[in-house]
Amino acid sequence: MSLSKPILQSCQEPCGENETNNLGSTYPGIMLPSNNGSVQALDQQASSAHNQIGNEMSFESQLTELEREAAMLRDISSQLDDISNSTMNKVSTSDVDSRSVYIGNLHRDVTALELALRFSSNEDVVRVTILSDKTTGLPNGYAYLEFSSVEGASQAMARMDGTPLRGRKLKVRWKRTNIFGYNILRRGRNGRLVRGVGRSGYRSFGRFQGIKHGASIPR
């Protein structure tokens, strides 16, 4: 019995500042909420932090989407540029061909300057191209002349077709634009594959077309 009295007295004495156990009191190193207002404040802070994280993630997502759309626009722009350049090249080639003539049955010793002087009328000749075999390097016996205008090419063709040059009668025709199907494999009458014979009956020799199938090739 003598031992219980000091214990009761100790409990009846005021507890120290750091030893109280009421709700909302302070324990060493631990802060507990003392009322409902503090709990709501913590909830608001947590909600605000969550919203901030969500906003940052939303911004990153929007930035990624914008970068993806920008890459798509660059790709589309590049494709449009390629299409535009291809169209311009085709238009340019078609324009040149419309002002060009084919000259066949040429003597192999004929030079580009000789052809230009022979066909020029008021300096209408813009370019002379004498084609050669890529293997032997020898002229194929034909050439192309480009004029500055369609009228100039037409007049030269009417004036020069059938005229002699170095003992040969020139064959002057409109230049044929390359047609799809010249340089593909086709089956001949005997079932064998034949390369280079297109719908127009022209055969490709070397890198160029223009010699009619079955015509003699200059040696």
TrEMBL record:
<dbReference type="GO" id="GO:0008143">
    <property type="term" value="F:poly(A) binding"/>
</dbReference>
<dbReference type="InterPro" id="IPR035979">
    <property type="entry name" value="RBD_domain_sf"/>
</dbReference>
<feature type="domain" description="RRM">
    <location>
        <begin position="99"/>
        <end position="177"/>
    </location>
</feature>
<dbReference type="InterPro" id="IPR000504">
    <property type="entry name" value="RRM_dom"/>
</dbReference>
<keyword id="KW-0694">RNA-binding</keyword>
<dbReference type="InterPro" id="IPR012677">
    <property type="entry name" value="Nucleotide-bd_a/b_plait_sf"/>
</dbReference>
<dbReference type="Pfam" id="PF00076">
    <property type="entry name" value="RRM_1"/>
</dbReference>
<protein>
    <recommendedName>
        <fullName>RRM domain-containing protein</fullName>
    </recommendedName>
</protein>
